Amino acid sequence: MKPIALITGATSGIGEACARKFAQGGYNIIITGRKADLLKSLADQLKGMGADVLTLLFDVRDAKAARAAVDSIPQEWRNIDVLINNAGLALGLDKEHEGDMEDWDIMIDTNIKGLLTMTRYIVPGMVERNSGQVINIGSVAGDAAYAKGNVYCATKAAVKTISDGLRIDLADTAVRVTNIKPGLVETNFSVTRFHGDQQRAEGVYKGIKPLTGDDIADVAFYAASAPKHVQIAEVLVLATHQASGSVIYREG
Fold it and tell me: pTM for the whole thing?
């Protein structure tokens, strides 16, 4: 049987790229997301690559919906080998004392609580089988705060700490934990952050060749493909002209 990868937030960006990469790499894929049409479109593409695909329509912020979705997984899909906690977002770029509290709630509920929810529901099965891998998509923003990034940076710092804590808790098992920390990746990330302002979003990548979702998917697949005695604990991935979350050289 093919191994199984479950990817949250799979309908765009890094999640979508991971779904394609793992399908190409011989996995069957469980994809989750909030938009049925995008899930169906991606599922059709993955099936065309030879993968069996299961779609789960829910928002990771809703723990009850997540529980119901996980409970609905057919028996033949339950031995999940890789969990990619990708669902996440940034909203707003404001000074902390001027920030939008609703944006804060959405980021915290998605980036932290949603990740914890899926970890809680999927990892016990891995422990029972003494096999599996959790790949959390963090960010360079989790290493140090940058101007007006306050709450988003805090959520990604939490991803790092949660990943480290889970790795410690699983040290007596064969379950591995990887935290991938991308820098600038050109997806719909910035469009979301700026609430649909395409022009402002494009300015984020001006003068630098950013990473792509495929670049991060390559790293995720490498981590999952490492020998069983090798745990790729953490990977920081930056564009060539990005030195940190706040130091970027832009041409022109």
Answer: 0.97
